Amino acid sequence: xxxxxxxxxxxxxxxxxxxxxxxxxxxxxxINPKAKTHLLIITKEEIPTLNDLPSNSDIPSKAVELAxxxxxxxxxxxxxxxxxxxxxxxxxxxxxxxxxxxxKFKLKSTV
Length: 111
Ligand code: 5GP
Fold this sequence. Notes:
Layout: H1 5-10, E1 18-21, E2 25-29, E3 37-43, H2 59-74, E4 81-83, E5 98-103
Antiparallel strand pairs: 1-2, 2-3, 3-5, 4-5
The chain binds guanosine-5'-monophosphate.
Guanosine-5'-monophosphate binds next to strand 2.
C-alpha cells in the first residue's frame, strides 16, 4: 500500500513544517484551516482510523496530553476543540489517524 499524505510529510517527501514531534506523534498546520489555529496531531505510525487502534493503545491519551501542551505553551488563550473524524461518512479524507486541534485563538509561538 502506498504511503498516506501524512507519512509522506513525515518522511520529508511533501513539504510541511513539523511543529512538534514526540516518539509517537507529530503536529503540522492544516493546509486548509477551518479556524484561526487549525493543527493536525498525527500518529507517526500509519493506522487508518481510530477504530483500528487496539483498546489498550495509549495514543488517544498521548494525543490529548499533547493538545494540552500545545494549548498551554503555544496558544494565546488555552481554549480549543479536538475533533477526530472516523470514516468517510464522518468526513474523514485522509485514512491515517489524526486529531484536529481548532481554536479561535492564535499561536503565540511554534516552539
Ligand atoms: P480529515 O477530513 O481526514 O479528518 O482531515 C484531513 C485534513 O488534512 C484536512 O483538514 C485537510 O485540509 C488536511 N490536509 C490534506 N492534505 C494536506 C497536506 O498536504 N498538508 C497539510 N498540512 N494538510 C493537509
